[in-house]
């Protein structure tokens, strides 16, 4: 099943979520279309599972990077920086997210799944800000929820600018660091 989900992610990155076909996934995975349908009866089931699969892998990747950091601000900064990191494996996840967002925006079944994950992401950022407040790396007067929302939105914008080739990674990382300073050191 992991082979099918990996293949689905590659196909979504290459062709977009809206153009995903079970036959393309089967070909990419080197399995029969019947096997794909056995595990995932519908295209929606496959997309949902691939999205959840990629989210779990992303969270595991970032979690290992955060383990070595000693305060909430550093964990927040790395979490956000990972979202605009174009190097492997981060870049593949960014590309997948872009394809999923673009293809699932108006999808009544999968759109809520993507939105739910995004809200959870903002909550995680808010928790990292609260950790920073507890360890003294973030000013106490910062509103964790508001700052998390604004930083998530900024990071999405920076990622889009990178994706479109309108800026280079050093410029976007500099902008992110400046925004973090403005939000966390009022």
In terms of topology, how is this protein built?
Layout: H1 2-15, H2 22-29, H3 33-39, H4 43-66, H5 72-82, H6 90-104, H7 111-135, H8 144-163, H9 169-184
Give the structure's gist in a few sentences.
By secondary structure, this protein is mostly helical.
- Coarse shape: elongated
| Residues in helix, % | over 70%
- Determine the structural class based on helices, strands and strand pairing: mainly alpha
Query: What value does the average pLDDT take?
Result: 90
Total discrete domains? 1
CATH superfamily: Tetracycline Repressor, domain 2
CATH architecture assignment name = Orthogonal Bundle
Sheet with the most strands? none
Could you describe the 3D structure shown?
With 186 residues, this protein is an all-alpha fold. It has one domain: Tetracycline Repressor, domain 2, CATH 1.10.357.10. The protein has nine helices and no strands. The protein has helices at residues 2-15, 22-29, 33-39, 43-66, 72-82, 90-104, 111-135, 144-163, 169-184. It starts with a helix and ends with a helix.
Q: Which characteristics define this entry?
A:
186 residues; elongated; Tetracycline Repressor, domain 2; 0% strand; mainly alpha
């Amino acid at each position: 099943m992991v082979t099918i989900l990996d293949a689905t992610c590659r196909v979504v990155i290459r062709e977009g979520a809206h153009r995903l076909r079970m036959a393309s996934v089967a070909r990419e995975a080197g399995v029969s279309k019947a096997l794909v349908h056995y595990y995932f009866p519908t295209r929606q089931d496959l997309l949902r599972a691939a999205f959840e699969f990629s989210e779990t892998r992303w969270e595991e990747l970032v979690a290992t990077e955060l383990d070595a950091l000693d305060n909430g601000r550093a964990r927040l900064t790395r979490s956000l920086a990972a979202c605009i990191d174009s190097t492997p494996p981060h870049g593949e996840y960014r590309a997948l997210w872009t394809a999923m967002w673009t293809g699932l925006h108006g999808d009544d079944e999968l759109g809520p799944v993507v939105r739910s994950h995004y809200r959870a992401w903002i909550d995680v950022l808010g928790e990292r800000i609260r950790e920073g407040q507890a360890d003294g790396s973030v000013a106490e007067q910062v509103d964790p929820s508001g700052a998390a929302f604004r930083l998530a939105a900024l990071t999405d914008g920076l990622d889009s600018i990178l994706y479109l080739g309108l800026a280079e990674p050093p410029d976007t990382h500099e902008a992110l660091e400046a925004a973090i300073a403005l939000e966390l050191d009022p």
